[in-house]
Amino acid sequence: MTGTATRYLHLVRHGEAAPDGSGLTDTGERQAVLLGRRLRHLPVSAIHHGPLPRAALTARLIGEQLPGVPVHACEAAGDYVPYLPEAYELPKDGAGRFLDFLEQFTPEDRERGPALAREAVERFTGPVRGDADRHEVLVTHNFLIGWLVRHAMDAPNWRWLGLDHANAALTAIRYAPDRPAALLFQNDMRHLPADLRWTGFPAELHL
Q1: Strands 128-129 and 134-140
Q2: Where in the chain does DSSP place strands (E)?
Q3: Mean pLDDT over all residues of the chain?
Q4: Which of 135, 147, 117 is nearest to 172 (CA)?
Q5: Measuring CA to CA, which residue among 55, 50, 71 is closest to residue 120?
Q6: Helix (H, G, I), strand (E, B), or coil: what is residue 54?
Q7: What residues contact residue 121 under an 8 Å CB cut-off, 6+ apart?
Q8: β partners of residue 139
């Protein structure tokens, strides 16, 4: 009978994006290569990425540092709004700002995003079948990383809002059998030199 084993999900926000949406800046490419080198010591089984060029190129550059690891595109790993809260769900001191931010999203976004978020949780979280632990890399975007961190911590659905992640930063979640999910670390940039850190992150929060 097949058992269950631990999944380690390594969440990556894409490298710094080119302004025209065509892929990455030179900085973004360097970030992706260095992140791939950091992951070399792990027995990574797969790299998943969203369909947008900035995520696809980041995944390819990481994959070049991990020979033999398959790279897969997946719509559920894309850039979308995972959940749109009602005003009563939000803390009073931040509700107005969050609701103003969410106003930019279309009815199509509001329907499509939560469906993809449910698919992402089903596909990328929880222990895995088999007897061997599995390490997977998910190259995605700020919103989905926030959503999966929120899910791992069993926080309210709205709490993906306000969680920021720098370009090519690494977040790791462990899903072990018979225990709650564990956030091992978040927004880790130790693989990047100082001049490549903090891109895509609010300036007032640089540490």
Answers
A1: unpaired
A2: 4-5, 7-13, 44-49, 71-73, 128-129, 134-140, 170-175, 182-188
A3: 96
A4: 135
A5: 50
A6: helix
A7: 148, 151
A8: 12, 49
Residue 71's DSSP bridge partners are 47
Mean of pLDDT values over 93-121: 95
pTM of the model: 0.95
pLDDT in tens, 154-205: 999 999 999 999 999 999 999 999 999 999 999 999 999 999 999 998 887 7
Q: Which of 24, 39, 48, 54 is nearest to 196 (CA)?
A: 24
Residues 6+ apart with CB under 8 A from 153: 159, 181, 183
Interatomic CA distance for residues 165 and 202, integer angstroms: 9
Of how many residues is the chain composed? 207
98: phi then psi, degrees, rounded to nearest 5 = -65, -45
**Is 3 buried (19+), middle (13-18) or exposed (0-12) by CB count in 10 A?**
exposed
Distances (CA, A) of 84 to 12, 18, 46, 100, 112: 23, 28, 30, 12, 11
110-127 pLDDT, tens digit each = 999 999 999 999 999 999
User: Beta strands 182-188 and 128-129: pairing type?
Assistant: unpaired
pLDDT at position 91 over 90: yes
